[in-house]
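dude i think i finally got it to work??
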Amino acid sequence: MPNMSDAIDGNLKASSAVSGAGYIMTNDSTNNRLYLHPGGNVIPMGISAGASEKDADGVLLTTADASVSIFPLSGVLYVRAKASQTWTTGLGVYCGAGGLALDSADASGQQLGIYLGTGVTSTSTDGETLIPVLCCGVGHV
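look at this
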């Protein structure tokens, strides 16, 4: 029996790829496929467990049904942050475009969870900073 914190396998929407762990994922319910969260009021589905499927040369596949694994939104997960975000303990964390986390000053509509780390500012490069987020029961239905 799988552990509740085990990654879940899924398939990507066409023209989608995930370059590593920590990206916020959502689903295209029409085609039952996953893709990077676009920002706005879209419900998050999970956090990428690693890069999506690659071809024999190590290039990320962008065809429909390329595989990807996600961690369910439960407990504390490490999420990639947008550049230059200010994080303080207890701050709301929001879903941003490209599957990146936003602080409450840049909130895009859908809350992912609550920041649990010490006070930090994301680096000036999108996705370079991983932040701890309490996702259990926060911001999603």
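The chain has a mean pLDDT of 91.
im so relieved honestly
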